[in-house]
Amino acid sequence: MSLAFSDLRNSIYRKLHAKDESGSLKSAIDKAINDAYAYLLSWGEWPWAKRTGAFLLKPVLTEDDFNTLTVQAGLTTVVASTDLENYFDTGDGVDGTWALVGDYRREVASVSTTTITLALAWPTPGALSAWKLYPRYYNPSGLPLQKIYSVSLYEGTERNPLDEVNATEFLENYAYDLTVGTPTHYSIVKYTDSGNPCIAFWPLPSEAFQVTLHYYRRAVLMGASAPGGSDSDVPVMPPHYHHVLEDGAMAYLYQDFLGEVAQAARKWAVFQESLSRMAREAKPTTRSGFRLGARPGRRSDTYDNWGARYR
Question: What is the enclosing helix (H) or strand (E) of 188?
Fold first, then answer.
């Protein structure tokens, strides 16, 4: 039977024989359910958690696209001769992180109309020549990504899978190569604080390309107290597994809110056995050691330090 978030909460109230169904207990139960939900989805590569999403790669801009880029005396402001806002706005829940390269290389902090603000000052004012304005990486913040397992690029109706490169290899061999063309490689170069992957492509796109991501989804917070959530939210796994969240939530609740360690351990053991049974039935590829809040292959932010070579 399918259980909504409110059904899970009410079932836990009944198991606790709770008389006060509000205040701190309600908040603790809501958090425990969401913690168990996030843990469950991160535990294995569940077939029912596979999703597909798409976004648009933006092409590199050069002096051939519009006339001039001029660095102002403040050295962090660059004025363009055309309206850039529409170009930078992807409009599909994907944040692009951009960089400007000429004699120097700087990350773009923000864009408004015809003004580009740089994250670090450009050493000299004046018009730039032989410059490129290009996407360093994309953050598909509109997609609930747990792990990407395939990335494809479409040229018309033709689907071309891209080769994955790990972050270290990408930094060493591709990050400074500003070749422009049809992308053939991608890399998850870092993760945001909220756990979203940032994806870089090589070569840099010569035109607008549609990219399709195949991924395992992560948990999105449920419940009316969550941003955009509702008490009628329903977990994404098959309905006959919804009750598994109760044991996980009870374990978190006993451990974090009620301080009953023995009870927490018993509930956690039941939760783990249920996950193992789900794995046997679904036969996913599990990731040993992957825990709540972790991300497979997570890298440090060394990729963000690349501009130091050009200062």
Answer: strand 185-191
With a pLDDT cut of 70, the percent of the chain lying above it is: 86
Q: Which residue has the tokens 């989804």?
A: 217
- Beta strand 126-127 with 115-118 is unpaired
Q: Is the predicted pLDDT of residue 159 greater than 90, yes or no?
A: no
pLDDT value at 160 more than 80: yes
**What's the Rg (C-alpha) of the chain?**
24
CA distances from 192 to 19, 74, 123, 148, 222 (A): 41, 30, 29, 15, 21
| Helix, strand, coil percentages in the chain from 3-state DSSP, rounded to 5 | 30, 30, 40
Burial class for 116, CB neighbours closer than 10 Å (0-12, 13-18, 19+): buried
Question: Under DSSP, is residue 45 helix (H, G, I), strand (E, B) or coil?
Answer: strand
Residue 263, burial from CB neighbour count under 10 angstroms (0-12, 13-18, 19+): middle
Q: Where are the alpha helices (DSSP H) in the chain?
A: 5-16, 23-43, 85-88, 167-173, 244-253, 261-282
Identify the CA nearest to 28 among candidates 302, 270, 254.
254
Helix (H, G, I), strand (E, B) or coil at 106: strand
Q: What tokens does 146 get?
A: 């747990």
**pLDDT for 42-81, tens place per residue?**
998 899 999 999 888 888 888 877 668 899 877 899 988 7
Spatial separation of the C-alpha atoms in residues 90 and 103, rounded to whole Å: 28
Instruction: Indicate whether 28 pLDDT > 80.
Output: yes
User: What is the C-alpha to C-alpha distance for residues 127 and 64, in angstroms, rounded to an integer?
Assistant: 14
Evaluate if pTM is beyond 0.85: no
Q: Quick one: angle between helices 23-43 and 244-253, nearest 10?
A: 120
Taking the C-alpha atoms of residue 123 and residue 129, their distance in angstroms, rounded to an integer, is: 15
Residue 156 has pLDDT above 70, yes or no: yes
